[in-house]
Write a structure and sequence with these properties.
By secondary structure, the chain is of the alpha/beta class. The protein has 13 helices and seven strands. It has a seven-stranded parallel beta sheet with strand order 3-2-4-1-5-6-7, sandwiched between helices.
Length: 288
């Protein structure tokens, strides 16, 4: 059984850093995992610890598309994915080398590819037809907690993407090492000084952050009805919750990886392995 983890989210959420850190953690845990770059606009590979085993840039570089077709970055990106979907035989051939592996797929930062374009959902559906068990993570960074309206925009985009993909899904709040209850930095930690009870209101989004006491005075009255409608939507469809991620903490990485494994039922189809010395040594008496 092959497994694929798609790492999605807006630009700047830390997707590529998360992919590299996760692969390092899995390598140290003696697990076979490989990086797949699905971003045709990614920078050329440098001295990364885990270079891409499969790279969409080898099939269709974004720069060539923009130059030959006269498209901008976003239009070129859409064309690249349309080209990939029309040449999935190339991807299948690349995928054939990895029969029982864990693929970590680094996706672009243009959220329209997740929220309303059908291209990535079609790609995932094709993987599933090939027998690849998929799970998607949607990353937003902890800085979103500095602006509650920006945060709920992130919540709504995550909800839209979840509905669009229709696959097992985990939302992740990244860069939690930059959110501390105390900090010696002048001016406080970069992404805010927040106590544990305050952070919890964001991990399981509390609608009253948007429409609670005091917020009416902060916003233009014409937005009050819109805020209440968003609150009602989140209350009626509580789909979004976040797992906090601190890449400086091994425990945080392991907890997220365990959640991903559980979500995609990693290893449940594997046959149990017998100990190498089952036919002798300490087990000799059992075999008689």
């Amino acid at each position: 059984m092959r497994y694929a983890l798609l790492v999605t989210g807006p630009a700047g959420a830390g997707k590529s850093t998360f992919c590299q850190t996760l692969l390092t953690h899995m390598t140290m845990s003696k697990r076979s995992a490989h990086l797949v770059n699905l971003d045709p606009a990614a920078d050329p590979p440098g001295d990364t610890e885990h270079p891409a085993a499969i790279d969409i840039r080898e099939l269709v570089p974004l720069e060539d598309v923009m130059e030959e077709l006269g498209l901008g970055p976003n239009g070129g990106l859409v064309h690249c994915f349309e080209f990939l979907l029309n040449h999935m035989d190339w991807f299948e051939e690349e995928l054939g080398e990895y029969e029982s592996d864990y693929l970590v797929i680094d996706c672009p930062g243009q959220i329209e590819l997740y929220t309303h374009h059908p291209l990535l959902p079609r790609f995932v559906a094709h993987l599933q037809r090939l027998g690849v068990r998929c799970c998607t993570t949607y990353l937003i960074e902890s800085q979103f907690m500095e602006d509650k309206y920006k945060f709920f925009a992130g919540v709504m985009s995550a909800m839209s993407a979840m509905v669009n993909f229709e696959v097992p899904w985990i939302n992740v709040l990244t860069k939690m090492d930059l959110v501390n209850p105390r900090s010696e930095e002048e001016g406080g930690p970069r992404n805010g000084r927040r106590l544990k009870r305050d952070v919890q209101r964001y991990l399981e989004p509390d609608p009253f952050l948007l429409d609670g006491p005091g917020t009416s005075q902060e916003t233009n009255p014409k937005f009050h009805a819109l805020n209440r409608a968003i609150v009602q939507l989140i209350e009626d469809h509580p789909l979004v919750a976040f797992i906090p991620l601190d890449l400086t903490s091994t425990e945080s990485i392991e907890y997220l990886l365990s959640s991903i494994d559980y979500t995609m039922q990693y290893g449940e189809d594997e046959e149990p392995k017998e100990p190498a010395d089952m036919d002798g040594g300490d087990f000799a008496d059992m075999m008689e």
